[in-house]
Amino acid sequence: MKKTAFAAFVAFWSSVVTLLVTWTLVPAVTLAEEEPTFTLEEVARHDRLEDCWMAIRGEVYDLTDYLPHHPAPPAVILPWCGREATEGMTTKGYGRDHSPAAWGQLERYRIGVLESAADTSTGQ
Which tops the pLDDT comparison, 38 or 117? Predict the structure, then answer.
């Protein structure tokens, strides 16, 4: 009887410790904040190398800080500033898509979603 009680005692406290450790290691689920949305008109105001936003696949990116590091000369990128630039990303202007690494770099410059894309995703 003592062995059964001791085994139950150890099992109980092992479970408690496991739950506490799990609770502290797993981040709390928070409700996502509403993302900023931008219209194409707002994006169009940022059409210079010194202030370059692009809408790509329904998301808006501020690429101003990246432009000096882009391998292509500024004259290649400037026509896409302030515009819907998915075509520029998927074709590079001559039918060849950007690399997966280039697509991955975009995320750090993401500032929100395009208003029409946000309306579609929320069912409005």
Answer: 38
